[in-house]
Amino acid sequence: MGEYLVFHDVAWHATYAIYFFLIGIVAGLSFLSYASWHLSALRPLREKSAYVSLALLAVGGLLLIADLSQPMRFLNMLNPAYLNFSSPLAWGALNLVAYGIASVLYLLMLWKKDEKNGKMLALVTAFLALGLPIYTGFDLTVHQHRPVWNTPAIPLLFVALAFSTGSAVGALMSANNAEAQQVLRQFMLWSAGAVVVILIAIMGTTSYGGSAEELTFMLMTSGTMGLLFVGVGFLAGSLAPVVMLFAPTGKSISVILVSALLILLGSAAVRYVILMAPQQVQTLF
Amino acid sequence: MSEELRVSSIETRGVPGKRRYAMVIDTRRCIGCMACQVACKAEYDTPLGVNRTWVPYKVTGKYPNVKKHFLPRLCNHCDDPPCVRNCPVEATFKVDDGGFVLQRYERCIGCRSCMAACPYNARFMLPSHRTYTPITNVVDKCTFCFHRVTQNLVPACVQTCVGRARVFGDLNDPNSEVSYLVAHNPTQVLRPEQGTKPHVFYIGADRNHTEYGRDAYRRIEVMESEHAAWKKHFDL
């Protein structure tokens, strides 16, 4: 057609998808650590989950800071004179800091074997951890013009992904513990099931939208993006684990571990495509 | 504008005692000479690959009955700008008197949230190396030539437009040329459904340009452009 188009770069690159993936696991592991106070089968995971979640939080935080074009100015996010509370990023920064402090205190209590305060801090940490997938979801939903992002289902999807990926990492960390595996199988089954339902809901809505939605749907379901989203993210990474875990053979440890790996792979693919496809459409406007 | 239409406290169109600058672009007068783009580049030392204003075109019809449509683009200086809402550190803000949406370069952390929020793809990241200007690695955009307007000059693109396709002025002043043009011509704004109340008005804009078209979809470019951007971002 002889068109001359200016393509300004997409705003958020794959670093954000990796960050979302890591922060989901961080939240999921915090839920497991809190659940271990109520489910004896998960007791061996209590300390491990807390340590790994804090380590991944550090990695995710550094990744986020490194992705800023002015990394040293990340301190501006913590400056009360600058903070803009209409931005979910501002709430997210506060949530991350609060979660980090609570996690360190929680680990301190675990180290001191202070059960009373430890249990209380496990609850606080899990509550703050719930804010992590919710705020990362809001990072996307508040962009009113972007198909897929601007749906209330995204924070719910991220919470479900946090549960499923956290449980998957938990399952991999307790590969020799049959009792914990059965509890984590239930967690993975129901959270991956929720992911399947939410993904169907999002894509169904998107396919019936306007021209931008139509283009986004085309991007997400065809070509390399389609392979990643439909093939890896939905079929292999969400639907297949649900079927495998639900089947009569789903209680075997090998099936649980394979499902855990698929869930992690699928979650990474879903997050990448959900982040990138609506942005690619935007560059065409 | 009636008071009832205003839904957000940030909006200043029709507020007595305040100016609300706007640009009217008469696409029937645009000849696609790109002089506006060049003037803007010269005014701001805008680096290669990014633009504060740009003039995309589309060719419609079938030979020999074809027509070239130009649609000069820039920041829409929305009355209810989503970029301002989304900036976590208030690096981007709206000037109450005038309606300019501006950027505090020294405060911008480069999270690119404003770029993600802009429905018009009007924001961009400045590269790390520039020829004359020390402002680098922060988000930039059109300022409606704030520094010129406050000196009673029109923006550089308006000054240079040979066809007088671009007209700039105070929409809150009923005697201004932009008020006259908006009142006496059918005008369009880009993506009105987003509720941003853009303040760049088009006369005679073509639907092929103001809406997404299926021909914009090129499957192969998606992953390639992301791969290239990723490498560029991390200097690989």
CATH superfamily descriptor of chain A: Formate dehydrogenase/DMSO reductase domain
Q: H/E order of the elements of chain A?
A: HHHHHHHHH
Rg from Cα of chain A: 20 Å
- Stated plainly, the CATH topology of chain B is called Alpha-Beta Plaits
Adjacency order of strands in the biggest sheet of chain B: 8-1-10-9
The unreliable regions of chain B are: none
- Helix and strand composition category of chain B: alpha+beta
Which architecture of chain A would the CATH scheme give at its second level? Up-down Bundle
Largest sheet of chain B, if any? 4 strands, mixed
Briefly, what CATH class of chain A? Mainly Alpha
Number of helices of chain A: 9
How many domains of chain A, as an integer?
1
- How does the major sheet of chain A shape up? none
**Overall mean pLDDT score of chain A?**
94
Number of strands of chain A: 0
Number of helices of chain B: 8
- Distance between the ends of chain A: 16 Å
Which percent range fits the helix content of chain A?
Answer: over 70%
Main interface: chain pair and counts: A-B, 57 and 56 residues
